[in-house]
């Protein structure tokens, strides 16, 4: 008690002690420490935020997988098919075909959180694809979508590419797929460059550096319904530059056996 009283008296006798502020050097030291801590934490926070977005994208693809399986059960094991060909089916009709199983009132599951552009289907529909079978426009699109539905599941698998037979439409069944856990049906085509289109093999550029998720690979959905990140080196297309990976995609026959 006596000590407290003495301290109070000391403050009364020495007002400078009570009103003493930080010196400029002390303030600069504190600011420097805060800056160092921020520099250490920001990269970690940025990585955590990106990881959360990547997980969200994989979750979106997983929801597409569930919707596709519900569609298969309702339509005699047949993959979503509107009767329209490339590009109309993947850019415009696909979201409509799954509208009974996915909410199309907002971007939600259709937009990858890493997509910095207007989404793949919108940006692709805005391109003048003269002579390549493009017959849909941005005005036709009901929902913007970052995820691409591959031609093999609704198109003519005898055609060398969609541009060879753009009007060929074929109904394919899930029973045709011999490697459902390795057969990619849908891929995230989110671009990290606003206004530029990303694809896995963009006009011979493999891999396209505009991918939003990684310079090493993409998020994919396989026919069995599971979604995951796959490195480019694991992709095994039947067109474009040859690869020798574990996952098959593109417009090759569904019963293709070139999966290791």
Descriptive labels:
32% helix; alpha+beta; 260 residues; elongated; 6 strands; single chain; 4-stranded antiparallel beta sheet
List the helices and strands and how they pair.
Blueprint: H1 2-13, H2 15-18, H3 24-74, H4 88-97, H5 120-125, E1 147-149, E2 184-188, E3 217-222, E4 227-231, E5 235-237, E6 247-249
Parallel strand pairs: 5-6
Antiparallel strand pairs: 1-2, 2-3, 3-4
What do you see in this structure?
The chain is 32% helix and 10% strand. The protein is α+β, with helices and mostly antiparallel strands. The chain is elongated. It starts with a helix and ends in an 11-residue tail after the last strand. The model has no long low-confidence stretch (mean pLDDT 76).
Low-confidence stretches: none
Question: How many strand units?
Answer: 6
Give the biggest beta sheet.
4 strands, antiparallel
Helices and strands: which structural class?
alpha+beta
Global outline: elongated
Alpha-carbon distance between the two ends: 83 Å
């Amino acid at each position: 008690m006596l000590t407290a009283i003495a301290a109070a008296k000391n403050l009364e006798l020495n007002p400078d002690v009570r009103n003493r502020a930080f010196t400029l050097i002390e303030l600069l030291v504190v600011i420097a420490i805060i800056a160092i801590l921020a520099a250490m934490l920001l990269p970690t926070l940025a990585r955590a935020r990106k990881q959360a977005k990547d997980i969200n994208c994989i979750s979106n693809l997983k929801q597409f997988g569930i919707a596709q399986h519900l569609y298969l059960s309702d339509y005699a094991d047949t993959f979503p098919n509107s009767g329209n060909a490339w590009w109309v089916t993947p850019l415009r009709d696909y979201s409509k075909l799954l509208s009974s199983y996915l909410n199309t009132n907002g971007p939600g599951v259709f937009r990858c959180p890493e997509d910095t552009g207007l989404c793949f289907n919108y940006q692709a529909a805005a391109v003048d694809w003269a002579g390549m079978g493009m017959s849909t426009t941005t005005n036709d699109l009901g929902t913007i979508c970052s995820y691409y539905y591959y031609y093999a599941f609704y198109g003519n698998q005898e055609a060398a590419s969609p541009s060879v037979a753009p009007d060929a439409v074929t109904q394919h069944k899930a029973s045709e797929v011999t490697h459902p856990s390795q057969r990619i049906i849908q891929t995230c085509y989110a671009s990290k460059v606003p206004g530029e289109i990303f694809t896995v093999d963009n006009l011979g550029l493999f891999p396209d550096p505009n991918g939003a998720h990684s310079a090493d690979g993409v998020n994919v959905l396989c026919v069995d319904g599971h979604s995951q990140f796959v490195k480019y080196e694991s992709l095994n297309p039947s067109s474009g530059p040859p690869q020798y990976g574990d996952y098959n995609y593109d417009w090759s026959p569904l019963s293709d056996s070139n999966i290791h």
